[in-house]
Amino acid sequence: MSELPISPERLSELTEVISGWLDNQLSSKTLVQSVEHNQNESRWYVRISGEDKDNSMVLFTLGQRTLHFETYFMPSPEENRQDVFQYLLRKNSKLYGVSFGVGSEEAVYLSGQINSEVISSGTLDWVLGTIYKAIEECFKPALRLGFASRFKNNHSD
After folding, report:
1. Are 84 and 142 in contact (CB under 8 A)?
2. How many domains does the chain have?
3. In sequence order, which residues have a C-beta less than 8 Å from that of residue 130 and are 6 or more positions away?
């Protein structure tokens, strides 16, 4: 990664690349449901659809050196906390470019970042696909561990 921040011109170009890619995703009716752009913060709020988790909000934040992305994965587990965190930590070793972490309220997030210099439509496709795959693969098992008694109660109905 470069030690120097990117120029304002290059930052503007990258903003256009990201916005254009998101517009294309939205008009192509891919998994992107909606996009909001906060220009002051260089942040995009991207709602994506899923199967196991109906939808997720992914935040893309363009900085001077990196594009950071994160999504809320699930609330703090009510039970089996150690099992949930162990499951997600084991999954981290199989993920590339994203990882699970715990936020300030003990909620679980999925986040990562790439160097600003490599931003392109292809890398953005990869980022969103990686996030989508991690959510689809891990959401139900983590939820069933962290809220096991709720799932047991639902099966008896």
Report:
1. yes
2. 1
3. 95, 96, 97, 98, 112
Q: Which two tokens stand for residue 151?
A: 């799932």
Residue 116 lies in a domain: yes
Average pLDDT of the chain? Answer: 93
Considering the domain boundaries, does residue 2 fall inside one?
no
Tokens matching residue 17: 């690349």
For residue 3, being part of any structural domain is answered with no
| Contacts of residue 88, Cβ cutoff 8 Å, sequence gap at least 6 | 100, 108, 138, 142
- Do the domain assignments include residue 58? yes
Write the DSSP symbol of residue 104: T
Residue by residue, DSSP assigns 66-102 as EEEEEEEEEPPPSS-HHHHHHHHHHHHTT-SS-EEEE
Residue 153 has pLDDT above 90, yes or no: no
- Confidence at 35, pLDDT banded by 50, 70, 90: very high
* Domain membership of residue 81 as a residue range: 8-155
Catalogue the long-range contacts made by 78-84 (C-beta closer than 8 Å, 24 or more residues apart). 78/146, 78/147, 78/149, 78/150, 79/146, 79/147, 79/148, 79/149, 80/145, 80/146, 80/148, 81/146, 83/145, 84/108, 84/142, 84/145, 84/146
